[in-house]
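subagent[fold] <- orchestrator: predict structure for attached chain, return C-alpha cells only, no commentary.
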Amino acid sequence: MTIHTDDWLYRAGWFLFRWLAQRLFQMEVYGAERVPLHGGLIVTANHLSYLDPPLIGCACPRELRYLAKAELFRWAPFARLIRRVGATPVERGTADVGAIKTVLRLLHEQKAVLIFIEGTRGDGKALLPPTSGVTLLARQADAPVLPHRRHRHGQGVGTRQAVAKTCEGHRGVWGTCVLSHSVRGTHRSSSA
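subagent[fold] -> orchestrator:
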C-alpha cells in the first residue's frame, strides 16, 4: 500500500510511522481497498490510544485531516506540528461552530476527515455512545461515511505501559462506505 498525497511531510511521516507500527506493534490492515481515494470523505473510528491518529493515518491510503481536542493545542510547538499534518482543534462537549465550518470546508475541498465517533478514548471492551455530529456533517456536505475499527490484544489505558499494550498487535479494519443520504440520525416525532 502507498499513500496518495502531495504533501512531502505527511508522506514522510506516513512511511516512517507505518514502518514503526509494523515493526513495533505488528500492525495489520484489512480492507484498505475500500477507502475511496478521491472526494470528500468522513472516516469514523473508535478511540483507544493517544497514538490512534497516526496509526489510523498510516493505515489509510489517502491523506487524512483530523479533529483533535483543543487541549492538545496548548503547547505551541506541538500545536504547530499537528496543525501542519492536518489537525483542527475542537472543543469537546460543545457544538463547536468553528470546527464544524472547518470540517465542512475540508469536505467540500474533497478531503478526508477522521472523526473519533465516541468523542473520547474508550477501553476497547465496548464502544461508547456515538456523538451525533457525524450525521450532521455527512448530510450537510453530502459526504460518505467510512467506518474504521481499531482493536488490539491486551487491555489498559492511561499509563506508560498501557500505551504499548494499546498498540500491541494493532489491527485496523476498514468497513464499507455509507452514503450520506443513508445516514440516519436520531429523529423524534412531534406527536410523541
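orchestrator: received. Logging for downstream: The radius of gyration is 16 Å. Residues 153-169, 186-192 have pLDDT under 50 and may be disordered.
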